[in-house]
Amino acid sequence: MDILDSNSVEYIVIHHSNRFFDSPLFIRMRHKFLRGWDDTGYHYMIGNGILCGDGIVYEGRSTDYVGAHSYGYNNKSIGVCLIGNYDRAKPTYRQYRALLALLESLQLKYTVPVVNVLSHNETSSCEKTCPGKLFPIKRLRQILQMLIE
Ligand SMILES: [Zn+2]
Predict the structure, then answer these.
(1) For the segment 44-65, what is each residue's pLDDT rounded down to a tens digit?
(2) Rounded CA gap, 80 and 15, in Å?
(3) Cα-to-centroid distance, 14 and ligand 1 (Å)
(4) Fewer CB atoms inside 10 Å of the end CB: C or N, the chain?
(5) In which domain, by residue range, is 82 found?
């Protein structure tokens, strides 16, 4: 895995795992054994309370290394995955709260502006709905903007 230079981090990209019955361990196993990657593609995952803690932040790939989550953005972003399928339901309250707190701390650490907090489908390469049609990305950015004002 390539080293991620913290100075080159410009974006935070948000994903969903596309499955309600899912966990950080399952994601790691899919990424390692089905895709053949060295580790989980995401840097962080946030549980939905079904097979893992509701609103618990789990570490995936170390932020010392380039992730594997958004083609064209991996070497300049941190990847965060909400466990669940947000084409069919909204994130849980605790997931959303945990996401806001995580984004705030990552924005501070890497000096990422609110406009660079992106959903996967906003990156040019993504043809999917990730992180789901019901994920409120614009509302999320409005709240992040309010938090820094
Ligand atoms: Zn995605």
Answers:
(1) 999 999 999 999 999 999 999 9
(2) 6
(3) 7
(4) C
(5) 6-148
